[in-house]
Amino acid sequence: MTARTSARTAAADGCPPEGSGADAELLGLTPDDLPDGLVVADERGRVICFNAAAARITGIEPPAALGRPVGDALPLQDLEGRRWWQLTDPYGGLAIRRGQPERNLLLGGREVLVSARYVRSAPTGPVRRLVIALRGTEARRRTELSHAELIATVAHELRSPLTSVKGFTATLLQKWERFTDDQKRLMLETVDADANRVTRLIAELLDISRIDSGRLEVRRQRVDMIAAVRRHVQAQATAGQRPDRFLIRMREPLPDLWADPDKVDQVLGNLLENAVRHGEGTVTIEVGLAKDTSGGEGTCVTVSDEGPGIPEESMSRVFTRFWRGSKRGGTGLGLYIVKGIVEAHGGTITVGRAPAGGAQFRFSLPVAAPAFLK
Length: 374
Description:
Elements: H1 3-13, H2 21-27, E1 37-41, E2 47-50, H3 52-58, H4 62-65, H5 70-73, H6 84-88, E3 99-107, E4 110-120, E5 127-136, H7 138-175, H8 181-213, E6 221-223, H9 225-238, E7 246-250, E8 257-259, H10 261-278, E9 283-291, E10 297-304, H11 334-344, E11 348-353, E12 359-366
Parallel strand pairs: 7-9
Antiparallel strand pairs: 1-2, 1-5, 3-4, 4-5, 6-8, 9-10, 10-12, 11-12
Helix pairs in contact: 7-8, 8-11, 9-10, 10-11
């Protein structure tokens, strides 16, 4: 019996493909089409379904598992070396138990994520089918590594400003009378700047948490994108940049844009700061009308510079966590957050090469509807 044949037999016998009835027939799905491993045992505990993903995850060929007792086909152990089937006892355990939550188990020395569902003919009846889901641990390991890298980055970024804040405040408290007013002001301004840096980092972490969990809220109000761009250019000039370094091009008229003004400011501020910090020459900001494939209108903003640009091989990683375009500092989280904000508005953002050779970021936001109409 082949894996495909066994899967179809099981599908008719209690291991259905995704969908059911006419939908399943129309789509032609079988358990081999599932992305996760699927193993099904009958009322006697013998394997009747072992799909292709299960074979890939476990390294066990379907013919070696079909027809065998599930404990022999899948000799699972917990991380302490105990035999998992003896611990859980699906066929002889508590009759009210519905299954087992996902956990990390060992199979022939490799780690596998395993969950189980007990299918009973009645709420407390005997187990009619044992359905086991298998997943590899690679995705979880990547997530754990990402979290560890995030913690290390945050710890590194927090150490410098907090050391400065602690040092200056301790010095002022101990030797206040020894410093002139100008010296005190300089120290307090440094403390204030470092405190703002910590606040920004915490805000970035909160944004990442909301983006990853899909809980980033967008409070739509009417936004004047041209005024917002001018405000950010003025802020860069106030911070010491030459005003003639920025060129604003406007293509009017623009439709009314309903977006979250604070988050639009966050996107514009990040893109302009990146262009100033990592680019060279004139920074050009273009604001114009955008149309999507369905004919809907929106606002498009393009920020480009005349620097060396982003290497072609790096463009696919620009909006990922911890990507840094140069060694000039930063957490590498800004563009990841920008992409999350734009997509939360239903918009798109792309990166490419500017006409003058530098980096070019373009984002578009749909007109959408105000918050009070939602």
